[in-house]
Design brief:
globular, two-stranded antiparallel sheet, mainly alpha
Amino acid sequence: MTEYTAQHRAKLEAYLATHILPSGLGNEESACTIAAINLAMTGEVTDDIRPCMSLVLGRAVIGLQDAMPAEMRNNARYKALIPNMPGTGRAHEAERLAVLMNWMWTVVLPQVQPYADKKGFGAEWSKMCKEKTRAAARAAANAAAARAAADDDAADVAARAAVDAADAADARATADDDAADVAYADDDAADAAARAAAAAADAAARAADVAADFADFWTAVDPIGVLERMTYLEGTRE
């Protein structure tokens, strides 16, 4: 495992104090979260997740930092968290994924419930959030897609969020069924869960049709909070 040193941390903290984090990879003058870590550790602008860092955490970071509002991505709370992400290691991927999946099912997707109720697929959406299974998520996706056929953009995006949730559940189930594939499945599940959160935010914003509601959504679901919980699992530093 590549060691994350005090010198790396100091470089990363100095960079974060003087640069803006963009949505997307960015460049040396404005690098994303993972690229900023790589700049500090290797001098390269890439989105490769360092061997010393949890893959599940890294995949969640990539998806969520791109989706959250720029002001949130660049606030002091988030920038204080980033230097603690390298060094999390990969011995507790299942625990970190469980934190992310629980947040997706119980915090993020329920934000779309009022819209789903209004548009006629509320029962399926509620069942998905309660049962937390790929089958229930597929049913919710189909119900939302049926509404989307009536040219409802928000319903189309809601359907995508449910599909992403189903993909996350499917990947998690693959890990449970086949220990040999657990690392890849956890990685895929984290990616899908982050996509589901982004799609749910898009759906909520389109349903409200008010720009302010996009920021309100992210404040309500608190993506920094879930990344904090994934980072600071007790007893998992390597």
